Amino acid sequence: MSRPGKSIGWMITLIILAILAGLAYFKFFWVFSDGTKTGELNSLTYTGYVFKTYEGEMILTGYGSKNASGTVQSKTFKFSVADKDVAEKLTQMTGLRVTVHYKEYKGALPWRGYEKAIVDKVEEEPVGTTNAPNEDPFFL
With helix as H, strand as E and coil as C, how does 31-74 read? Predict the structure, then answer.
């Protein structure tokens, strides 16, 4: 004969496990955002102790600043690459201006990479294209 308290304990345990599984899914597997970024590919490394992953960094340039107009500011975009073919293509483009498509998660997994942004596609920008505003045609 089973006690009623025992079955309630199992139900509570299952509910807690279901909640933890849902939280883990939203943190590590649900795509928070996806988009593209364009910039100069600064580096791509294959690194890790147990899980070897491809880690990259792009320099994104922007025009204008809140403090001074007409200034150029830059920031970096750090990312991981899970697909070996995309990583090999990126390796050949180091130093070039590229556009990458990425998916961003709320958490990083060690076998997927150190960063929350995972690049899944890459395109090289055509030579001579720029989005710089107000270029002086005299200096081109």
Answer: CCEEEEEEEEEEEEEEECCCCCEEEEEEEEEEECCCCCCCCEEE
25-56 pLDDT, tens digit per residue, is 999 888 899 999 999 999 999 999 999 999 99
Q: Do residues 9 and 55 both lie within one domain?
A: no
Nearest to 81 by CA among 65, 62, 100, 97: 100
Burial class (CB in 10 A: 0-12, 13-18, 19+), 18: exposed
Residues 55 and 82 in one domain: yes
Q: What is the pLDDT of residues 84-140, one digit of tens each?
A: 999 999 999 988 899 999 999 999 888 888 999 999 999 877 655 554 444 544 444
